[in-house]
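Table S2 (continued). Query chain:
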Amino acid sequence: MTPLLIRPSTADDLPALTAIYGWHVRHGTGTFEIDPPTLEDMGRRRDDVLAKSLPYLALEDEGEVCGYAYANQFRPRPAYRFCLEDSVYLRADKAGRGYGRLLLTELLARCEAAGARQMLAVIGDSQNGGSIGVHRALGFAHTGTIRAAGWKFDRWLDVVVMQRHLGPGAATAPA
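Corresponding output:
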């Protein structure tokens, strides 16, 4: 049995990443996208994250990519440069095994090592108990709910915002 492996993603992972995310777009409320992005779209998005020297991780189980996580700037303006937003997606058949927690734990460590001070989780759907629970278990605090922010699958969806400090957080000025 091949152990789980969390590693930096590569361009070769893009078909698997695109398939995983596409499933969530078509079937889930964790993302408010309506149309799945193409392989090229996903490549451009990954390139954007990597160009900012931010992590874009892949999770392998038995040699197959079955999940991924990345962090990106919360907003593009320079004052936000120490505040990131996480994204974690798993293949549907791998949910509930603790893989999301493993990915997010590694992502947080890498972002902290890179000098980030705050991590935000902007969680689609206030009924997304799995994502909310994983973030809470890893020290995120609920900071707000944006009611009826999205319309998908013929219903209004809330957005839950959670936050966790990284490193010294706001206790000191950044280096």
